[in-house]
Amino acid sequence: MDARLDYFADPTAGKALKHFMAVGRAFKESSLPAATQELVALRVSQINGCAACIDMHTKDAAAAGESAVRLHLVAAWRETAVFTEAERAALELAEEGTRIADAGAGVHDEVWARATRHFDGEQLTALVLLVSFMNAVNRLNVITRQPAGDYEPSRFH
């Protein structure tokens, strides 16, 4: 499959995406655990059908030592025992934050309360920004049919 647009060849995209990707790197410096960040990025990308991001976050997480079992079970995290309570709270928040139109009221108070039990203010901020960022990146990739499969771990970090 060929991409509809080549973001790396377009000067306007190059200018905008340089800053956009810098935002993504800022999460890496937050106190939100790296494993949680990758799991959330992967789950949001699965929901949105973004193959390029699924490819990237699966490979980056594996390169960072994440187990294949956990990566394979992210899509069914509710039915597994391999995620911590904090990771489960983050994945639940990520799902409701991604499915805003489906949830009616957006993120429910109970979901937010579970997240606040596991994450401090800085981590919650990073988590909310990460969910929003991933939704934006997914849309950029899905709209332009960015191909997946050839990502090399840590290419954008």
From TrEMBL:
<dbReference type="GO" id="GO:0051920">
    <property type="term" value="F:peroxiredoxin activity"/>
</dbReference>
<keyword id="KW-0575">Peroxidase</keyword>
<dbReference type="InterPro" id="IPR029032">
    <property type="entry name" value="AhpD-like"/>
</dbReference>
<dbReference type="InterPro" id="IPR004675">
    <property type="entry name" value="AhpD_core"/>
</dbReference>
<feature type="domain" description="Carboxymuconolactone decarboxylase-like">
    <location>
        <begin position="16"/>
        <end position="96"/>
    </location>
</feature>
<protein>
    <submittedName>
        <fullName>Alkylhydroperoxidase AhpD family core domain-containing protein</fullName>
    </submittedName>
</protein>
<dbReference type="InterPro" id="IPR003779">
    <property type="entry name" value="CMD-like"/>
</dbReference>
<dbReference type="Pfam" id="PF02627">
    <property type="entry name" value="CMD"/>
</dbReference>
<keyword id="KW-0560">Oxidoreductase</keyword>
